[in-house]
Amino acid sequence: MPPDGALLRLESVRAGYGPVVALRDVDLEVRPGELVCLLGANGAGKTSTLRTISGLLVPQHGRIVFAGRDIHGREPADILEAGIAHCPEGRRVFPHLTVAENLDMGAYVRRDRRAVEADTAQVCDHFPILRERWRQMAGTLSGGEQQMLAIARALMARPRLILFDEPSLGLAPTMVETTFEIIADIRRRGTTVLMVEQNAFLALRMADRAYVMETGRIVLAGAAADLLADDHVRRAYLGG
Amino acid sequence: MNGLVLGGTYALLGIGLTLIFGLMNVVNFAHGEFYALGAYVAFAAVALAGLHFFLAIAVAIVAGVVLGGLCERVVLRPLRGESIDTVMLVMIGLWIAMQNTELLAWGGVAKSVPHPFPTAPLVLGPLSIAPLRLFVLVAAFVLIAGVHLLVHRTRLGRAMRATFQDADTAALMGVRIHRINTATFALGSGLAAAAGALLGPVFLVYPSMGDLASLKAFSVVILGGLGNLAGATAGGLLLGIAEELGAGYVSSGYRDAAGFVIIILVLLLRPSGLFARAERIG
Amino acid sequence: MSRLGRGLLATAALLAPFWLQNPYYLHVAIMAGIFAVLAMSLNLLLGYTGQLSLGHAAFFGIGAYTSALLTLQREWSFWLALPAAVALAGVAGWAIGRLALKLRGAYFVLVTISFAGVVSLVSVNWMELTNGPLGLPGIPVPTLGPWSLRSKTAYYYLVLAGAALSWLVCRRLVHSRIGRAFVALRENEPLAESVGVDGTRYLVIAAVVSAGMAGMAGSLYAHYTKFVSPEVFLFTYTVTMVIMVIAGGKGTLAGPVVGAVLFTALPEALREATSWQWQMLAYGVILLLLVFFLPSGIVPALSARRRTPTETPAPLPAAKGHAVGAASSPPPIAPTRAAGGGHAALPKRPAPAGARLQVRDLTVRFGGVAALGGVSFDVEPGTITSLIGPNGAGKTTAFNAITGYLTPTGGDVVFADGRLSGLRPCDVARRGVVRTFQKTSVFPALTVTDNVMIGLHLQGRAGLAGTIARRRRVQDEEAGLAAQAVDIIEFVGLTSRRDEVASALSYGELRLVELAVALAAAPRLLLLDEPAAGLTTAEKTAVSALIRAIREQGVTIFLVEHDMRLVMDVSDTVIVLNHGRVIARGAPAAVQADPEVIRAYLGGAGAA
After folding, report:
1. Could you tell me which residues come within 8 angstroms of residue A100 by beta carbon, excluding any fewer than 6 positions away?
2. Higher pLDDT residue, B102 or A10?
3. In this predicted structure, what is the pLDDT of residue C219?
4. Please, are residues C579 and A176 in contact by the beta-carbon 8 Å criterion?
5. Which one-letter DSSP state was computed for residue C227?
6. Which of the residue ranges B209-218, C99-108, C423-432 has the most confident prediction, judged by mean pLDDT?
7. How do residues B208-264 score in pLDDT, each as one tens digit?
8. How many CA atoms lie within 13 A of C603 on its CB side?
9. What is the mean pLDDT of chain C?
10. Can you list the positions of beta strands (E) in chain B?
11. Contact residues of A toward B, CB < 8 A
12. CA pair distance B142, C225, nearest whole angstrom
């Protein structure tokens, strides 16, 4: 695969919080239209990888290239404008903003009012529950509804790449299925996805490729189908 | 009625402070100095530059906004990430420096701001109120309503609220947090200056007027809850009325004690409500 | 500062009246002495406990008024009025400390400002007592036997004695168990509480001593100027004190004294040229500049400069590849010691049989969400038991609820026949249940040894009076604690780093410091929250060896950890939590094979 083929590429990225090293020379790439998932036990550095890509965590070393542009060290707002949306762990909807306002926040960087309105209508068709809850504070929504809102909010920025961090976290099993269907659908419509997920088997079944992380490093990479069969993944999560 | 006039301006002060405290986590001890600044600019504009009274008030507000924004850029932004205590010390330094600059510029003698209103009170049935005070009351409420609209109806206001609730996620939505901080500090300072410009003509203008204003603003914030605009509005009115009652029933010498007592009582009786945000276990 | 330097300064201070012939200079020296007492008193709160009091002028004023009124109206002797002033100011400090119990940071500042505001308003308005704004003139000059202390020279020595006494009290407090508790609260309150430091109690102690000292300064001031008015409550005094402390160096003994001398002499020297408005403006600007350019103050900056050329850091152990000291020698010191039966390594309390942790129906709700929905389990004495589960399963919540950092909505926690639920963290530690924290939690500004000394808090019992009087028993106790600290640091393998400041250590070493601090509290049950998070593989191996060695010392271990290899490796029993409920419990191998556990970790489709 030629390097130009990548939409997003991380080259030996190192990052941390104060004295704590979170990422040790991470190399990773996502090609246009792919659904890539990032697996690993807690504390392995998955969330830090996403936070570094979206600019919340400033890398100490290495390069991050998105669509041919170096985005390393830029502000989150610039990175979002470049086309990367980040749907953070634990949903993080604004609890005291209404559903409508949360969606507006998703389109914060966009100036094309008319297109934003059209997109709002479209995500509401996609997630009818949001229209029902339109004037409700997001904090009063159920966990599943909040997840729908968080995904819809990320879509409002019209990103080329969405980062999902643990979209199934804390959801009831049926809701987990629905969430994964939605993410598969987003990818089908042409948006590239990089996803961090605990629910490894479910994630691997829908992903094209996957990376496994351990203590801040990528220890395994490959086609999702191969990893599904590999005992490495089970061990990364459950030891032994 | 006088309680309401005072309360309206206290609410302005409190709203400004609650925005700054709640959004930026800055304990702004210099807040009262922006109040004093507003009063002095209004005085200078009317008495020295000969501007019209209403125009002078607008000039004072603009001065508060500009200087507030400048302070945030120059003093506070380099300190992002420092502990809240360090920032607090800096704000204390700013407070002292601003107050004594006023003292040097204007001297210690109290000044009064000339105003165009007649002194004869308006009598409306059982109520009587000086026209100036009525104007202050109306102006304060127009400004409060304006802030509510700004915060609840505009893109900037939405971004401010989002940042207050979850700064990291707001950044992920493309909000440039440092710009929101500058805007918030400028807005808060502008409101304090507005309060000063409005109350200046009612009372006298003197350099240490900011000290009490700061304390009153803090009592309003504590009464209303951190970052709570409606709370600050209600808290301001409550404080104004409490002072008026305290002065009437206890002794006018203890008028200013109302704010102190409110701070102590609220913090003692309901500290848990205030500290929900400060939990940092695990 | 060297002993010689201190001696020279003391001599200079003693002989000051001889080289300061001009009475005006002597006046400045007296004021400097009074401000030194004030600055030292404020430093005790601001510098050591980290709480800024902006109402310190209130204690100063209370001292001044008490002394003035007692000598004027009751005709007490100054020598009785002075202690009374100290006592009354101390009572005021106690009241503030008690009232402000849980208030920290800005809220503490606001309460102190408000308190000073109320006191000041009372002094203006209570005409009958205070003569209102007119003040109280004609306060008598103290006499000492047949001599009157009317002359400036005599009064200078009185003030000097007062300052020396304050310095001694501060010095003894700071270098004691109590002083360590103050600093622990400043540096990291949750951690301090976890090893049994009672935050409220020590904040109150600091407030009382600090207020008492300010009261003494007030009394000295009143009898020097022979006049008090509500001006003593002026905010200016408080601001001056704050600047003296910050400029001199908060949290150092000499700092406030240096600051006081400098900021009394400097403005007096400038007075000729400028007005006092300029002086106050300069104060504000200086405070701003200090925070930006000299945040730690003059004294620390000077001593840092002196140290750099002479002191070279201790050489690091040779095999430094993995940062953790213990990791560099694969079978670390700890297990060998333990195997050799070297029980001297850890301070021990006999673990009584049946010191079992029983958790019954523990429920924690945040708003409507149940983080723990009625969890029950036991941790058997002498075992290593692990609590695992996916993210958000409620593990840390369970730790917080057990150790008193969180009040559970329902259920019971019992340890060795005593209920833990409802106790404060420091009381839980007193029962022998000590926890560590998920995010690295040490006292960053202190050396490894001092970190561990704070951990030993509960092993000492020196009180306020004994510490200030410096009794034999207290000195012996200190020596004993220091010896224990040496052993504990050796146990975790940090001996070569024990004089390093914690913030200079590597991440792996910090995690060992955390363990050492917790061990110092002599736990019977030790709760470890992700002790291996963020460590390299080699470091993790060292930590698991250490965990086993701790168990060998008779400490029961309850572990939350995400590294399954480590968990499966060390645990006797594993408890699995998911969505706030226990879904499995048993030996590691059984739990690993449990289908429900696999489903919780790897997802519902796993079996397919």
Report:
1. A134, A135
2. A10
3. 96
4. no
5. E
6. C423-432
7. 888 889 888 988 888 887 778 888 898 899 889 888 887 777 777 777 787 788 778
8. 25
9. 84
10. 122-124, 127-129
11. 54-56, 75-77, 80-81, 85-86, 88, 92, 94-97, 101, 104-106, 108-109, 153, 157
12. 52
Chain A contact present for B202, CB below 8 A: no
State residue B167 phi and psi, 5-degree precision.
-65, -40
A169 touches chain C (CB under 8 A): yes
As a whole number of angstroms, the distance between CA C557 and CA C571 comes to: 9
Whether C307 has a pLDDT exceeding 80, the answer reads no
The verdict on A231 touching C (C-beta cutoff 8 Å) is: no
Instruction: List pLDDT tens digits, range B101-146.
Output: 888 888 878 888 888 888 888 887 777 788 888 899 999 999 999 9
Q: For residue B24, which amino acid is it?
A: M
Match 């009170």 to its residue by tokens: B121
Query: What residues form DSSP beta bridges with A163?
Result: A86, A194
Contact assignment for C592 to A238 by CB distance below 8 Å: yes
Task: Quote the tokens at residue C155.
Answer: 């009064």
The interaxial angle of helices B2-24 and B155-165, nearest 10 deg, is 60
Q: How far apart are CA B143 and CA B11, in angstroms?
A: 10
Going by pLDDT thresholds of 50, 70 and 90, the confidence category of residue A50 is very high
* Contact status, residue C407 vs residue C594, Cβ threshold 8 Å: no
Which two tokens mark A1?
A: 């695969």
The predicted model scores a pTM of 0.81
Distance CA A195, CA A217 (A): 17
For residues C47-54, average pLDDT: 88
Residues of chain C contacting B215 with CB distance shorter than 8 Å: 113-114, 117
Q: Which residue has the tokens 């509480």?
A: C193
Q: Report the C-alpha gap between A36 and A30 in whole angstroms.
A: 7
Q: Which amino acid is at C382?
A: G
Which candidate, C548, C550, C486, places its Cα nearest to that of C518?
C550
- H or E element that contains A22: strand A20-30
Distance of CA A69 to the CA centre of its chain: 20
Is the CB of residue A229 less than 8 Å away from at least one CB of chain C? no
User: Which residues does C293 contact at the CB level (< 8 Å), separation at least 6?
Assistant: none
Residues whose CB falls within 8 Å of the CB of residue B22, separated by 6 or more in sequence, listed in order: B164, B226, B227, B228
Q: How far is CA A139 from CA A123, B170, C368, C369, in A?
A: 20, 16, 11, 12
Provide the sign of the torsion angle of the four alpha carbons B91, B96, B97, B98, taken in this order. positive
Beta bridge partners of C365: C370
Length of chain B, please?
A: 282
Name which of B161, B162, B174 is nearest A77 (Cβ-Cβ): B174
Residue C578: closest C-alpha in chain A = A170
pLDDT on residue C334: 39
C484: left (phi over 0), alpha (psi -120 to 50) or beta: alpha
d(CA A239, CA B199): 70
Alpha-carbon distance A163 to A169, whole Å? 15
The ipTM is 0.90
Flag if B257 and C117 touch (Cβ within 8 Å).
yes
Q: Residues C448-481: pLDDT tens digits? A: 999 999 999 999 888 888 888 888 889 999 999 9
Q: What percent of chain C has pLDDT over 90?
A: 45
Say whether pLDDT at C599 is over 70: yes
Q: Does B52 touch chain A (CB under 8 A)?
A: no
Over range C102-131, report the average pLDDT: 84
Q: What is residue B78's predicted lDDT score, i.e. its pLDDT? A: 87
B partners (3+ CB pairs within 8 A) are A, C
- Other Cβ atoms less than 10 A from the Cβ of B125: the count is 5
For B68-104, b where at least 16 C-beta lie within 10 A, e where not — what string? bbebbeebbeeeeeeeebebbbbbbbbbbbbbbbbbe
| Structure token pair of residue C521 | 């509290």
